[in-house]
Write a structure and sequence with these properties.
30% strand; 8-stranded mixed beta sheet; alpha+beta
Length: 505
């Protein structure tokens, strides 16, 4: 390695070593330590002109003892820290969690990857963690059964352990309470605990939390789980004839709790994406003796018609009438194979987006409620791109009072130099837009629901993706997440969880 001297202003720095195996940018960083001039401001004269960051040292002809001239303005001198550098191994566990940027992994306690992946996905929901923190240790017996209470407490404590540790956590207490509450997860085969379905674990756990946190004394928000994961659907029935549709006389409204998995995507041979699937997936199922063809949020139902005196075909059209903060989509990849008398897996590739817009699946009433927040969102995103916001009167009607109020709110926030961010706005002042961002994917690898391996892929608050493969968290690129769409024996998406994009109102 040649040694040179560097002249900067009135200073001369002798015996500066150049590591020619590294790029010139590394040499500039050395000079930054000596002079305080950032690499991007340094202008160093060498043979052929200025030294570039990616230049080839072998072509520059720098010789031993050569004097180099540098120009540039130094940063202001910053006082050195009183304490020396702190290494990761010397950090307290809580600080190390923040430094690493993700929570701990979970030990596999014997075919418990289905449980570990479920926990890691739900652990990424800060609102759920907040509701669990407020859950009290004592509980009145008439509010919730003891097994639900103990499982809820175990969930809260496990979430807390994940947040405070970097080293893997053994979820023994949580597993014990889960098996007490739901004995199906304690099934044995030849003396070994069986692999279970992650979707069933997800559904059972969320259902338990919805019951426990619903108690008025357990949380400031007794409807926390419903608000986070619940969906309202409104349905209409039409009488189907050979040439027309006749409107059936009543409208059916009902609440469908998503509980983490309820927009179920049954995979058909012609389906290749989530959006297309929500409209047209087809499955035949037997429900109380009635054959139902399910087509996205539309279905055909054959049953007796009192008015016609015979069996008729009805069309049921369902629309989303209220949206949750977290929308979870399950890919129904397992079906019962009669030939082998066991669950088989559909390996077909089904793409899913990083951003999902469900506006087209909403009821007319919900679409009206979404118009103002969606317009505010477009304006905010337009501002970031340097575009003009929507005209005050564009797209509005004379009677649209809410639109005018939203305009005033948008203008106030735009004119304020200290406007409140979306995340800082109070929860009650945030409005859903119908647009969701992917934040977690639970995948399955293998050919059968009773075997294989489950893994959670979770987006962190810093925007990085982490693959939680039991006790081994592995950083991932965002491009890797969209490649989990299936089509082979590699990990493929089984449950996707999306977080609502909201705006302050």
């Amino acid at each position: 390695m040649p040694t040179v001297s560097v002249k900067w202003q009135k200073e001369l720095y002798p015996n500066v070593e150049i590591d020619t195996s590294q790029s010139p940018y590394v040499f500039k960083c050395q000079l930054y330590d000596l002079t305080g001039v950032p690499p991007e401001r340094q202008k160093i004269m060498v043979k052929g002109g200025l030294l570039k960051d990616d230049a080839d040292w072998s072509k520059l002809g720098v010789k031993e003892g050569q004097k180099l001239m540098m120009m540039g303005t130094a940063d202001e001198i910053v006082k050195a820290p009183e304490k020396g550098p702190i290494f990761a191994e010397d950090m307290p566990e809580e600080e190390l969690v923040i430094h690493v940027g993700h929570s701990a992994g979970l030990f596999n306690l014997g075919n418990t990857c289905y449980m570990n992946s479920t926990v890691q996905c739900l652990h990424s929901v800060p609102e759920l963690k907040s509701a669990l923190i407020k859950y009290p240790r004592p509980v009145r017996s008439n509010e919730v059964d003891q097994t639900s209470h103990l499982l809820t407490v175990a969930t809260r404590d496990l979430f807390n352990d994940l947040d405070k540790n970097v080293k893997p956590v053994a979820p023994m207490r949580f597993l014990t309470e889960l098996r007490k509450k739901y004995p199906q997860f304690a099934q044995l085969h030849n003396g070994v605990y069986m692999q279970q379905d992650a979707e069933e674990c997800w559904t059972q756990l969320i259902y338990t939390l919805s019951q426990s946190l619903k108690s008025p004394s357990s949380s400031e928000d007794p409807d926390a789980v419903k608000r986070l994961f619940g969906i309202d659907l409104v349905s209409r029935y039409f009488l189907h004839s050979a040439c027309c549709f006749l409107s059936f006389s009543h409208v059916v409204s009902f609440v469908l709790f998503l509980l983490g998995n309820l927009i179920r995507n049954h995979i058909h041979n012609s389906i290749s994406s989530v959006e297309f699937q929500l409209r047209f997936y087809i499955m035949e199922t037997q429900i109380n003796g009635v054959v139902e063809l399910v087509c996205g949020l539309k279905s055909e139902l054959e049953k007796a018609s009192p008015s016609l005196g015979r069996s008729s075909l009805y069309l049921k059209d369902s629309r989303i009438n209220d949206l949750p903060r977290y929308l979870t989509i399950q890919f129904v990849r397992f079906f019962w194979k009669r030939e082998s008398n066991q669950k088989a897996k559909i390996l077909r590739k089904v793409d899913y987006p990083l951003e999902l817009d469900v506006y087209d699946f909403c009821s007319d009433d919900l679409r009206k409620r979404l118009e103002v927040p969606r317009r505010i969102l477009r304006d905010e995103e337009g501002k970031k791109l340097g575009l003009k916001t929507s005209d005050k009167n564009s797209g509005s009607t004379d009677n649209d009072v809410k639109m005018a109020e939203a305009e005033a709110s948008s203008n106030r926030s735009g004119n304020s130099s200290k406007s409140e961010s979306v995340e800082d706005a109070p929860e009650k002042e945030k409005a859903l837009t119908g647009i969701y961002d992917l934040v977690a994917v639970l995948t399955h690898k293998g050919r059968s629901a009773d075997s294989g391996h489950y893994v959670a892929w979770v987006k962190q608050e810093n925007g990085k993706w982490i693959q939680f493969d039991d006790d081994n968290p592995i950083p991932q690129r965002e491009d890797d997440i969209t490649r989990l769409s299936g089509g082979g024996d590699w990990h493929m998406a089984y449950i996707c969880m999306y977080k609502a994009r909201v705006v302050p109102m």
